[in-house]
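FORM 7B: Structural annotation worksheet

SECTION A. Query
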Amino acid sequence: MNVKRIAGALGAEITGLDLRAPLDEAAARALREAFLQHKVIFLPGQALSPAQFLDFARTLGTPIEYPFVKGIEGFPEIIEVKKLEHEKVNFGGVWHSDTTYLDIPPMATLLLSKEVPPYGGDTLFANQVLAYESLSDTMKRLLEGLQGISSSAKADVSKTREDRMRTDGNDAAPKSYEARHPIVRTHPETGQKALYVNVAHTVGIEGLTEAESASLLAFLFAHQVKPEFTCRWSWQPDCIAVWDNRCVQHNPVNDYHGFRRVMQRITLAGTRPA
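SECTION B. Predicted structure
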């Protein structure tokens, strides 16, 4: 297993593994250590079937179903994240952590590229530990103990689901979800503190007025995705990305109109943010 960092803030490319076969205990342990250290890892050249993709995901955690979109045939835990040639809006095309509107958001997300456009369609990632650590001590004290309110109905991101809801929507899902989580989250494995708000889902701060929340959140939303906290990944077919949803945000770039992009996605069960 070879690990190559791709940026100063986060991200590493991992080669030398064939995920079509089960990982032995040592390889699985080394992979998890790389995941925790680099926060997002990329494994190119992995032409996996859905069953193999799901088996690999189970070496890292417990796959769970996404509430709004049905899974592919025979695999309810695997959804397609796709933008078709005639569509203008890409799925989740805004900075976010996945499904923070759930009481227990996922620990990690895995994405497997199946079809990629001839150019564009990169994904940006942002390290929320670095974003927190770069704040002033005064701001850290201000944020400590505050609870952010997340909603699945925030307009910026609900618009990005509309095409998939029409074609693959889960009719049994509730219309919206809402949850409260600490604005500063402590990672349950590393102990690091990270910002845990995002422009896609966070709609307010418990105990503050709407104006007070808006001002503080606007600062945090701009701060947490500064270029020096980010990395960028250019996709090729059959590449897997795994990112730590507890301390990483991502943003798929929507710059490939007229082309098709199809990914398979699995999320892994997490713990209640604290």
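SECTION C. Observations
The mean pLDDT is 93. The chain has seven helices and 16 strands.

SECTION D. Sign-off
Analyst initials: ____
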